[in-house]
Amino acid sequence: MAQFSLVSASVGLITLQNPPVNALSAVLRQGIVDAVEKALCDPKVKSVVICGQNGIFCGGADIREFGTNMRGPPLIPMIHAIESANKPMVAAIEGSALGGGLELALGCHYRIAHSQARLGLPEVTLGLLPAAGGSQRLPRLIGVPAALNLITTGRHVTAAEALQLGIVDQVTDHNTVDAAVKFSQSVAGQSLDGRRISTYPCPVQPNLDAFFEEAMLKVRQSARGAIAPVACVQAVRAAATLPYAQGMKREKELMATLFTSGQARALQYCFFAQRAVGRWSTPSGGRWDTSKPRPVHTAAVIGLGTMGRGITVALAQTGLSVVAVETQVKQLTEAKQAVSGMLERGATRRGAAPTPDRITYSENIQAVAGADLVIEAVFEDMALKEKVFRQLSDVCKPGALLCTNTSALDIDHLASQTRNPELVVGMHFFAPAHVMKLLEVVYGPRSSSQAVATAMQLGKKMGKISVAVGNCRGFVGNRMLKPYLEQAFFLLEEGATPELVDRALEDFGFPMGVFKVSDLSGLDVGWRVRKADGMVESGLSTGPSARIRQGRRYSPLGDLLCEQGRFGQKTGRGWYLYDKPGGRVSKSDPWLHSFLEEYRVQQGLVARRVDQQEVLERCLFALINEGFQILEEGIAAGPEDIDAIYVFGYGWPRHRGGPMFYAGMVGLAKVMERLDHYHQAHPDEPSLQPCSLLRRLVASGKKLHSQL
Ligand SMILES: CC(C)(COP(=O)(O)OP(=O)(O)OC[C@H]1O[C@@H](n2cnc3c(N)ncnc32)[C@H](O)[C@@H]1OP(=O)(O)O)[C@@H](O)C(=O)NCCC(=O)NCCSC(=O)CC(=O)CCCCCCCCCCCCC(=O)O
Ligand SMILES: NC(=O)C1=CN([C@@H]2O[C@H](COP(=O)(O)OP(=O)(O)OC[C@H]3O[C@@H](n4cnc5c(N)ncnc54)[C@H](O)[C@@H]3O)[C@@H](O)[C@H]2O)C=CC1
């Protein structure tokens, strides 16, 4: 609802009341309409202030209403009524003014913001555009380039930037409502003619056609198939070229195409999934709302290679004291330099002071004795990790949490090396650890709920999307990656090229195809794992048995490349060619194509035409099938957990909602039918056999997601 009160004898104060973020639900919209009418009819009221309760102006339209039969007064006439009022309407912005919230404020004649407030039009991140006049008013207020930037990226701006851009009229460090009330009194009675943004001409944009062509090219490149950014550019173009009323018509048409789109549903699902994963639970009864995390003031990191360095930076940036241990002197020296460089660059980006003084370096594990939490990031070698965990168990103070950043190894086995296995969890960061948003918190059967709660809370403080998952080989993300990679290799054997497979995946929306990613992370990483698993036989034998390992189809292609010293970008050659070792730009490699042809001849394989659809179905459905298996085993608590992991850690296109949501969009029956089809053609590939949960869901007609 919206509360109306008279303050300072002549100011009508309208307070938006819909916790937690004052989203513009039907009830709130009705409340605003009623309160505005009251204020305009009351002769005692000379000016009006609109604010939000509990320190937040408004988080925008109520996203939960989308997709339902929306009732209540529509936003657009409500905002027009505010703008056309003959008494000054002032928005008092505290906390956030986002989406419809900012559009409401843009309908007001003046905007006063608290210095800590943040403003933005994030609709594009939900697959929409600012369709309550935002796409037409903002360019008129701040000019086309600045408005286009905010609308196509959805980024939030600080109050200071909003003032500089001209979105707000004043910024205060004091009580925003008091400041707005005073301000409204000072302008009461003045003409409002120059204050109605819809009447402003849009500032002239030089070289309009070229400007919008370039803008469209840019969003198409970065949107990777997302439709909302494209519609946002079209809407702003309408603002720049059409009178306001016609621009509004165009805004509405564009919104109509977005509003019911699958992409909007997927993006809105991601918004809630990102929040849902914070409400974790474990099979042993641990829960987010009943488990109390332990305080963490000092953290330690063991091993300062690629991951340890990033983790150290992320911890220091969170404000913790960090003890960083590395046994190799050369690595330690390099790590110190790298960490201070990363901290400096991070501070420059955020406009904050660097924080290297919070880090103590040591070559000796004894230095971690005072830490509340330790994260081990030494080589992926079980014997080494066992030794480190035994040492930690001896050295650390009682109650210290012992975490491992292992990508795949058994957490419970590591816990068994310590005196307090209940204090051991996985904290699986993703490279680069100070940048990537995802953190898998892996609990073993003996991990205490307090240990899980502590790691989850620390992840949140570090700005990560933390997802609690059970203990199995590869946990959730890497486990699902295995069948995906496997299918990509098989497709090469059957006639595809790395370019074809990557193109299909990139067209689907991944930032990089599977072979480019392999080149980036290093082909030797998987090779080492396959060797440790006893899968690698050196040299190439021929005949079908050469491609069967442990009773299932196996492709030695990756191993053969590694034997040639082709480790990817680091060696300048992998699935692609690079101009030098460490080069970043991939080129098609004729050698690789001849190699594939020779390999097929040697193996008696006849290349056939593989199309993009087969690439997507085999790679993605095999990955999704593993996701169902993971759900069935209870390794992930729900589909949101898997989807969040893939969207935030593996580049799954957000506008497709994550693999499990995508399966629902495609239709579970179709996914199962295609898997069955491919499994019949390839009976030696168990990852193509639909798992029993998928079969049961299809048989019962049940859905995995209530949104679908
Ligand atoms: C606001 C925040 C910055 C706060 O952050 P924080 O404090 O960290 O809290 P959170 O944990 O994020 O949130 C707490 C809690 O609140 C829920 N929540 C947050 N925002 C919303 C919201 N807007 N709606 C509903 N619920 C919300 C959140 O989920 C949490 O709950 P939980 O999930 O249970 O844990 C932060 O929350 C934030 O960033 N929020 C989102 C801001 C945002 O994106 N706003 C934009 C919303 S979209 C919008 O405003 C669009 C419009 O206004 C346009 C409307 C026009 C509609 C016209 C329709 C016409 C259609 C025509 C087509 C016709 C088709 C046809 O012809 O049929
Ligand atoms: N590289 C990646 O992309 C990711 C790696 N991981 C995991 O993180 C862990 C570390 O991986 P990377 O950082 O890539 O390895 P790395 O090889 O870059 O670094 C490991 C570091 O540990 C040091 N070290 C070895 N034994 C030590 C000991 N006893 N005490 C202190 N330091 C010791 C080494 O000298 C080296 O500097 C592995 O378990 C890996 O599986 C997890 C996610 C992603």
Count of extended strands = 19
How confident is the prediction overall: mean pLDDT?
96
The CATH homologous superfamily of the largest domain corresponds to 2-enoyl-CoA Hydratase, Chain A, domain 1
**Largest sheet composition:** 8 strands, mixed
Compute the CA-based radius of gyration.
28 Å
Characterize the structure shown:
With 708 residues, the chain is an alpha/beta fold. The chain folds into four domains: 2-259, 2-enoyl-CoA Hydratase, Chain A, domain 1 (Alpha-Beta Complex); 298-473, NAD(P)-binding Rossmann-like Domain (Rossmann fold); 496-603, N-(1-d-carboxylethyl)-l-norvaline Dehydrogenase, domain 2 (Orthogonal Bundle); 612-700, N-(1-d-carboxylethyl)-l-norvaline Dehydrogenase, domain 2, CATH 1.10.1040.10. It contains 27 helices and 19 strands. Strands 12-11-10-13-14-15-16-17 form an eight-stranded mixed sheet, with helices on both faces. A hairpin with an 8-residue loop joins strand 15 (424-429) and strand 16 (438-443). The mean pLDDT is 96. The protein binds ligand LX6MKDVF and 1,4-dihydronicotinamide adenine dinucleotide (NAI). Residues 302-308, 325-328, 331, 377-380, 384, 388, 405-407, 429-431, 521 line the site of 1,4-dihydronicotinamide adenine dinucleotide (NAI).
Summarize the SSE layout with pairings.
Layout: E1 2-7, E2 11-16, H1 26-41, E3 47-52, H2 75-83, E4 89-93, E5 96-98, H3 100-107, E6 110-114, E7 118-120, H4 134-142, H5 144-153, E8 156-158, H6 159-165, E9 170-172, H7 176-187, H8 208-223, H9 228-241, H10 244-259, H11 262-276, E10 298-302, H12 306-317, E11 321-325, H13 329-350, E12 359-362, E13 373-376, H14 382-395, E14 401-404, H15 411-415, E15 424-429, E16 438-443, H16 449-461, E17 465-470, H17 477-494, H18 498-508, H19 514-521, H20 523-532, E18 548-549, E19 552-553, H21 557-563, H22 590-603, H23 612-633, H24 639-649, H25 659-666, H26 668-681, H27 692-700
Parallel strand pairs: 2-3, 3-4, 4-6, 5-7, 6-9, 10-11, 10-13, 11-12, 13-14, 14-15, 16-17
Antiparallel strand pairs: 1-2, 7-8, 15-16, 18-19
Helix pairs in contact: 1-2, 2-3, 4-5, 4-9, 5-9, 8-9, 9-10, 11-24, 12-13, 17-23, 18-23, 20-21, 23-26
Residues 302-308, 325-328, 331, 377-380, 384, 388, 405-407, 429-431, 521 line the site of 1,4-dihydronicotinamide adenine dinucleotide (NAI).
Pathway: Lipid metabolism; fatty acid beta-oxidation
Family: In the N-terminal section; belongs to the enoyl-CoA hydratase/isomerase family.
Domain 3-hydroxyacyl-CoA dehydrogenase C-terminal: 474-578, 615-702
